Please model this.
Amino acid sequence: MSTEEKSIKPTIPLKLLVDETKTRVLAAEATSDFVNVLLSFLTLPLGTVVRVTKSHPGSIGCMNNLYQSIEQLSADNFCTETCKSILLSPRNPLALVCKNLKLNIDDTSNGKCFSCHYCGRKSHYPRTKCFCGCIANTEISEGGSQPVDKEQFVKRMTMCVITDDLQLLPGNPISLVQLLCNLGFSDVDQVEELSVDVGLEEVSKLLKHSLVSKTPLTDVFLGKRKLANISKPMDPRNSPTPSSENRTSPNHTEFRVKLILSKSQNKILGLVAREDFIDFLFSFCTIPLGSVVKLLDLNSRVGCVDNFYRTAESLDSEWFAISKSEIINAGVLKQYKCKNHPLQIPDAKNILYLLDPRSPTGKVDCFGRFMEAPHLFVVSDNLVVTPLSSPSSISFLKELNVPLNDIEEQEETMGETEALALLKASLTSSSVLNNCFKSSIDQKFNKSEVAGK
Ligand SMILES: [Zn+2]
Model:
């Protein structure tokens, strides 16, 4: 890139309040441009989050493995080629708002979509089969003929104070004083100001650190801490499975999976499941970060995102330029939803005449599947997914590196509670299946111990 092109890269000025030794960011004072960027994080589907942050060190639980598995699966595992593209580059439900931001790390919308020349139905993906039998292939501008709306997430004059652990507070002297007092500062002279320019590189770093660290502002702007892979097995006693109480209508979708256990190690080595479970697992990539936090009852324990969600939710609605709930819990486009899905995720705001690009016939609003059926897959404890064909079964068994007589199989049912635990563990643990099924496995091995005595 030439120096000229470099010099026109947009940046947002940000004022940091740091301690005297300049080793810690206490808070940032931000204008609407920066607040908009932070709010856009909540609208990013997890597949996009993984993709735009993967150049930075560290892994977000095992989501990076899951994403890489999709990349490596051949196209014939999916119903259509577009299914794979959707999972790798899921469309942000608020893509058109994100495009208006000064810094936008979501590159999934290029402002174009494809329309059926006969009936006018639209798709974000080329070569989508239309309801009427034609192919939607006429490239049009996504906004249609309507004037380009420059709406953003918060109103232009909004000022906010952001803490190092990403609490979003109203920008006024009172909240700043309270914050500094809470941090143990009694004298303004103990606080120094530092001005920085935030560009796209800093934004993607900030996104990554907000998912794996409790001090993302310090990490990114003072660079005092190295980003390590902090994901580790969770202790389920400290991290209760999100409750499925308070949910309006119980969801009775269930999956049957076969766990592969090592008897000597008392642990799960992997699982074998059908394509409908893989649809569900891969569909994590299509869920916006904010909707994930909401599904997990603001107890995702993913970096600082619970703090950010909670404080954004409590900001006065008057600060927002569009519906607050639509920003923080954007939902999933109906055209990406799965037929069998134990989690209750809202539909993203409806886009009229949108076709389901996964459907080979175009005859349905929601085709409901990504993976070709019938098909069996192996999922490892750290979420590497491979198709179960005979050669890969043998290589899978070899990789496990355990004596064949040590391997046992156990069938498990997976409903909403287990599905939520799986989502949470995928984002926070490096031993996802063992976390998710811990109680059931402990029970099994304790029982067999007792029986053996
Ligand atoms: Zn048509």
